[in-house]
Request: fold
Amino acid sequence: MAVLPNTTENLSLDTFVRGLWEENPVFVMLLGMCPVLAVTNTTMNAIAMGLATTFVLVSSTVLISLLRNWIPKQVRIASYIVIIATFVTVVDYGIQAISLELYAALGAFIQLIVANCVILGRAEAYASKQRLHTTFINSLGMGAGFTLALLSLGTVREILGSGSLLGIPLFGEGFQPWVVMILPPGGFFVLGAWLLIFNWMRLRKERRLIEQSGAAANAG
Amino acid sequence: MLRTLAGIATLSGLLVVLVYQYTKPMIAENERRLTEQAVFEVLPGATSKTDFTVTEQGLVPATPGDSGIRLYAGQLPSGELRGVAFPASARGYQDVILFLFGYDPACECIVGSKVLRSTETPGLGDKIDRDPDFLENFVALDARLNTDGTALANAIQLVRQGTKVSPWEIDGISGSTISASAMARAVNDAAQRLVPLIQRDLAVLSAQVPVTE
Reply:
């Protein structure tokens, strides 16, 4: 029975932080765009979706990492999907038990976490080869990065589109909300703006590195 | 290979069943709270409710699992009938909108409205559940029956904003004409059908003493 070969990463701060910044699933890898665009019209929806995805991500990758030496590589994708689908069902019932209003607001996107490529991507690229504790930390980082990205879209869209934050009005009576921001086009606008900022910062950092190394070479 | 797959499937099934069993009463409780909230919102002053089902014989107290339109009788703290909440639906701009309306048999009018499910455009169509001037229409909307008691004396209809003259007319909202007219159609269709039944079986509705929980 052939299993995927193990590669072990040593646990470090980078294991966690990578998901937040360097390999942010949304802003850098552009994965899981469907919930990012669809359910970030309010901050609350963004938080709920982020937490639900993080829960599924962490629990399924942990289980996959535990079972990595028993899952034959020919049927690994099927096994991963069954495991992910199980945890999505758990989250689905969990959210219904917490609040039906929230469940209605998130709509079909809870069930669609099954098809979120961030999770299958983590399972295939990381959990299937790594030890339990690094997998746990890495998934937590990726989940936090995903939640952070949803939150940065959700807050901007809610503030501009409804003039409120977490349902609390921020501006006076005279504020005319930009309705387009809570409609689908607003999702694209805000995502585009964040990608612009992210890439600009990354390019600036790279340029500075080149300049520094150039200066060092000249000095030497 | 087969053993692994069977193992994973068994584990998955077990987990799903456990979570389903555990959350089932919580979800049912949430649903009950949500309908109760809606009923009390469309029948201002009501503090308890009893459920009825529309059957061929008329209104009967609802039993769990029966089919047919559900009506909710709301009672005042004194136990008197405050009114009846009835569901209604109509096609809106994007999808079917579900409403709950409150009917007061004493004044023979609609006393409250609530949108239960809608996908109307935020900022435009969804004003039908939030615009205070528009909701004013449903505080005392005339729904008197004709002399035979078979239908409404005057059909409820939507008129252009600012042109309401009769108590059975609904003043529209500019910018959400389609959603507002869907709401008018929904309340008219449902009231034409249900208000005659409610008035006829008023004795059944009033006799029901609310179960105190």
Residues 7 and 129 of chain B are 50 Å apart (CA to CA).
